[in-house]
Amino acid sequence: MKRLLLIGLFLTGLLWALLSFSGLANPGEYQSIVLDFREDLAVGQLEKELGAIAQTYGIQPVPNSVFSQSDHLYIVDGDAKLLKALRRSPLRQATESIAPNYIYHALEVPNDPDYPKQWNLRSINIEGAWDNTKGNGATVAVIDTGITQVIDLKNTKFVKGYDFVNDRVDAADDSGHGTHVAGTIAQSTNNQYGVAGIAYEASLMPLKVLSAEGGGTITDIAEAIRYAADHGADVINMSLGGSGDTSVLREAIDYAYKKGVVVVAAAGNSNGSSAAYPSRYPHVIAVAALDATGVRAPYSNFGAGVDISAPGGLTVNGNPAGGILQNTIDPETGASIFTSLQGTSMAAPHVAGVAALVKSVGIEDPNQIAEVLKKSARRMPGDELNQYGAGQLDAAAAVKLAQQGNLNARHFFGWLRENGYLSLKFWFDGGAVALVPKIIMVLGSYLLAWFLRVYVPVSLPLLGGLVAGSTGLFFLKGFYIFDLPQYPFRLLGSSIPELGSAIQGSSVLNPIFASVLIPFALIALLLSHAWWKWFAVGSALGVAACLAVSAIATPEVLWLGSGAIARTFLAFNALLCFGLAALSAKAVHERTAT
Amino acid sequence: MSLTVEGTVQRSPMGTGTWALVTPDGSTYEILKGGAPKDLLQEGLQVKAKGKVREDVMTIAMIGPVLEVKSFEVIEP
Questions:
Q1: Cα separations (Å) of A99 from A27, A36, A56, A71?
Q2: Given an 8 Å threshold on Cβ–Cβ distance, is A344 in contact with B60?
Q3: Is A285 domain-assigned?
Q4: Which tens digits make up the pLDDT trace of A165-175?
Q5: Of A42, A73, A102, which marks where a domain is finished?
Q6: Domain-terminating residue out of A71, A102, A133
Q7: I want to staple A309 with a disulfide (CB 3.0 to 4.6 A). Which of A134, A388, A567, A578 is the partner?
Q8: Which domains does chain B carry?
């Protein structure tokens, strides 16, 4: 029976390894096959081989170019089936290789002279997306300080907008903010002038709701959202935020969502652990900001409500190189200038632009567009504080995923998140916990208790100890209440070994906590207590399971690194914990027997 | 909802630039520019400001609750 269990345990480990194997990358596309004949082949023999191919497969091999004949490099049209047949044929002996003639694409590099300064566009992998779409057919409403058609927006398409501040049709910018945001979305690109924009074949809808001083009322914002939804906008960008929750704004957003509009908003710049309004509303994609190194910018909000992250820039001591460069107006003179700004205001339009790209390849439903953006984002490992939401925005991956089109798998945490949103009081980060290792830790701790079943009776304190030692109430780790600190939930959601790094929200284990020390102290203190001793024994078994799984899966330990030293440390302490539990349970057993 | 906030007036680079009132415990308010008393907006000024939080206003700077200052007095550091 014990052997059976050990085999079971081994198979679980194997299955896990297989599940976490992501598979080989897509090897590429080809429509022809390269035949590289041996160089020592006589001319007559080569011709004989070429004739045989023509006869057997009905295709004529041709030299790749005039230079190919000396290398004996020939091409035939064909697919994977022919490739397989050729590789199995006697032709093999006459060739050095028979291989797919992979097609390489030159990436789209625009000719805008200051494009090299746009680190932000390269960091979202925009060139790979431009191969497929530039956003043609999509309309993005920019709800902001207005848009002035500066020189580098001359080739960009516009649809009619509105100025809700001054109640007029012309929604020109008097601040420089809205024009900058619009530039990130659809700056005229490949026009040999200035800089590039993300979805530069999309149309812009200028909606002015904020004054020259950068503020505006929620009534104007709500009206602008409804205007956009009623006038054919596919995406709304709101690089604005505040602290008030109002039904006017929430209902406007729901209205736009029901009309099929994707709503994107900035998470806010107060370095707080909750997204600002309106980004935290349901059906709004809240965007946190990254600096040029891909790390969350120090001003950006994070935590509750943040869905994804994108470049927002960081201009340290006024140095513009780390900011987001676009063409806008000088608010003092109204002249066209190129300037670098920073903020989640700059991050949101990156997501809005990519949403327009996704829309233009045929995804209609706003839920599905949000899903594509999040699923294709580059996940950030160890993001315990939800600084990055689903991850860093990736335009090429998003467009690729959108073209594959199979997007119906809505997982459990997605459902939970939707329902968490309903009350707008709490929020759940489904990505905070890697589920598989946690489940193995819980099961493993039960298994260890089962090994000692002769000495250890199953009881409530034992089960409590197993949970506390192995995983904690791990589902609480990603639980937030808006505008309240999250660390109490992180503490409850951590096991004993994780406690040493729970407050600072790091996934790196602290070796003082991730060792036999705490179980030893608990057993020393509680072993004489009738009830709590089983909690102590359970926690030792739980910690043993947690450390053993960590030694294999995530062996990152403070000061010890993540290599052999850390693995040995964790495995050794796991053994000590199990030994400690076994010895003390045995001692208790013998004491009660006599 | 009227309130009194003590803190330091600071220039913030967020958005196209704005003014903040930062309290000693680190809370940041964004000073609503429209209607703010003229001599309030000076870098480093220590003030006791009376006003209200405008929950109906949203801004491009998003650095904290928007404070509409009605009156203020300079306090010695």
A1: 12, 8, 19, 15
A2: no
A3: yes
A4: 999 999 999 99
A5: A102
A6: A102
A7: A388
A8: 2-74 (2.40.50)
Report chain B residues whose CB lies below 8 A from the CB of A145. 60
Does A12 fall in a domain? no
Its ipTM equals: 0.90
Which residues on chain A are in Cβ contact (under 8 Å) with B53? 243
User: What is chain A's percent helix, strand, coil content, to nearest 5?
Assistant: 45, 15, 40
The SS3 assignment for B30 reads: strand
CA angle A248, A253, A254 (to 5 degrees): 100
How do residues A63-117 score in pLDDT, each as one tens digit? 877 777 777 888 888 888 888 888 888 888 888 888 877 766 556 789 999 999 9
Q: Which residue has the tokens 């780790």?
A: A477
DSSP state of A105: P
3-state SS of A34-90? EEEECCCCCHHHHHHHHHHHHHHHCCCCEECCCCHHHHCEEEEECCHHHHHHHHHCH
What single string gives the DSSP state of each residue in A467-518? HHHHT-SGGGGGEEETTS-SHHHHHHTS-GGGGGGTTTT--SBPTTTSSSHH
B35 at the A interface (CB within 8 A)? no
Interface contact flag, B64 A243, Cβ < 8 Å: yes
What is the model's pTM?
Answer: 0.71
Distance, in Å, from the CA atom of B66 to the CA atom of A242, rounded to the nearest integer, reads 7
Looking at the DSSP assignment, which residues form a beta bridge with residue A328?
A337
Q: Is A72 a catalytic residue?
A: no
Chain B residue at shortest CA distance from A178: B60
Residues A179 and A287 in one domain: yes
The answer to whether B10 contacts chain A (CB < 8 Å) is no
Considering the candidates A72, A112, A144, A494, report the single residue annotated as catalytic: A144
Inter-chain residue contact B65 with A243, CB threshold 8 Å = yes
In chain B, which residues have their Cβ closer than 8 Å to the Cβ of A342? 13-14
Assess whether A410 and A467 both reside in one domain.
no
